[in-house]
Amino acid sequence: MNVDDHVAPFVHEGRLCVGGIELHRLAEQVGSTPFFAYDRGLVSRRIAATRAALGSDIELGFAVKANPMPALVQHVAGSVDWLDVASAGEMQVALDAGKEPAAVSFAGPGKTDAELRRAVAAGVLLELESAGEARRAAAAGSALGLRPRVAIRVNPDFTVKGSGMRMGGGPQQFGVDVEQVPGLLDELSSTDVALEGFHVFAGSQNLHAEILVEAQRQTVQLLLELAVKWPEEITYLNLGGGFGIPYFDRDQPLDLRAVGENLQRLVAEEVRPAHPAARVVVELGRYLVGEAGLYVTRVVDRKTSRGKTYVVVDGGMHHQLAASGNFGQVIRRNYPLTTGRVAAGTESIGTETERVSVVGALCTPLDLLGDDVELQRTEPGDLVVLLQAGAYGFTASPTRFLGHPDPAEILV
Ligand SMILES: Cc1ncc(COP(=O)(O)O)c(C=O)c1O
What we know:
Elements: H1 3-7, E1 11-12, E2 15-18, E3 21-22, H2 23-30, E4 35-38, H3 40-54, E5 59-63, H4 70-77, E6 82-85, H5 88-96, E7 104-106, H6 113-122, E8 125-128, H7 131-144, E9 149-155, E10 163-166, E11 176-177, H8 181-189, E12 194-199, E13 203-206, H9 209-227, E14 236-241, H10 256-274, E15 279-284, H11 286-289, E16 293-305, E17 308-313, E18 337-339, E19 353-359, E20 368-376, E21 383-386, E22 408-411
Helix pairs in contact: 3-10, 6-7, 9-10
This protein binds pyridoxal-5'-phosphate.
Pyridoxal-5'-phosphate is lined by residues 63, 66, 84, 107, 167, 201, 204-205, 241-242, 283-287, 391.
């Protein structure tokens, strides 16, 4: 996909807009740059398309870690079945958003005793990441006189290729190795916890439908094999997700239909005969919100150094680390970026473009937001906009680094 493809959903009547509000006006409303702006209509559309592809028998979860802005989580909470959280802080955001504890799952290694206690008290589903955590969850339950709701997060014996981040297969800090699950089940059978089911999350940011289809097949097979090892009825099967979004020139959008059709078939043919009433969940973060967000910066300075032109903006990697290439990229590539002028189409705007490097305000060469990009000519005061900024942006960035203020966030 090229930059125009990324910009297109934000263009209304030739102007770059978020939620129908033209970007320069929105910048005035926010009152300061840089800021993140999320388009609630785009989020809703993506959720609706995903639900349509998954069909009515598969529940959709939102991984709050992708974007925990409370207003956004509240917006999403109303149209998904589950919220997946990764800390007690995120759990509170999910509960504040009005999600019932029965539909909140809490995954992630290193849950502290205090977090386990809070989760048990709240009544959310704990995704156990180790035998030790299972014991500590049980202890939290007995201290509170409550029966913890738990599921086992399983580290599978297969890996999913093509994921931006692999989180399953081989040795992992995530989940219980599948070969250790029978031992853990034995232990749980004499422990006062309510085991609801199993969860496999094998990787994130995958754009290859054929790989996801194969991973889902293996995941379902593994979950079904584990489910028969537990004498009581299994009511929760979480198949993970990992649906990716295109960031770079050669990336193509995921074939959602192919992935959805495969999931529907697997659930109907493989899962339902054995587990007619289990809640089958697919859990997505980035796919639901990543493309609905912009990171809006303002040009502070331009300079030429030995023939190279730098556009210096007031934002940077401290807010949008991923765009600088320092959040899981092996080879740095540019996130799509544009100017606020692009679609504004106003008289003052020239069509002249230039090759520049867009750099942030931090005193490190890592703070590179666009390397040698073709961009409309900008002057100090103009807006430069990074796309694909709706997931793993503000809260996945080193905001304290160099002491600049936090960006505003707005949901439009
Ligand atoms: C357990 C779990 N669920 C969901 C996600 C969300 O992944 P993504 O945003 O790629 O959909 C992650 C990402 O790390 C995860 O670890």
